[in-house]
Write a structure and sequence with these properties.
mainly beta
């Protein structure tokens, strides 16, 4: 059983592909999986929309996209906050 499958079972998640997943490493950055669109980006903020229409805002300092794929972003920098935005 993979680590992600085990975490999904603990959280009661059936299909991770229908949601966003953010893996956060203190002081290093984050990996955002399952995003659909980048809404805003600066050196202190990244805002993305998910496939499920959720809006996620990541704030911090010295943020930069290290790697970008069609559904995955690797973000380097000091992350201070990750939050879901509601209208």
């Amino acid at each position: 059983m993979s680590f992600l499958t085990e975490i999904n079972e603990m959280l009661g998640i059936d299909h991770i592909s229908t949601d966003m997943c953010i893996t956060f490493m203190i002081g290093k950055g984050a990996v955002v999986q399952g995003y659909k669109k980048i809404l805003s980006i600066s050196d202190s903020e990244l805002i993305v929309a998910g496939k499920n229409k959720r809006i996620i805002k990541i704030t911090g300092s010295n943020l930069e996209i290290f790697s970008l794929a069609c559904s995955e972003i690797v973000l380097h920098g000091k992350i201070e906050r990750i939050e879901e935005c509601h209208d």
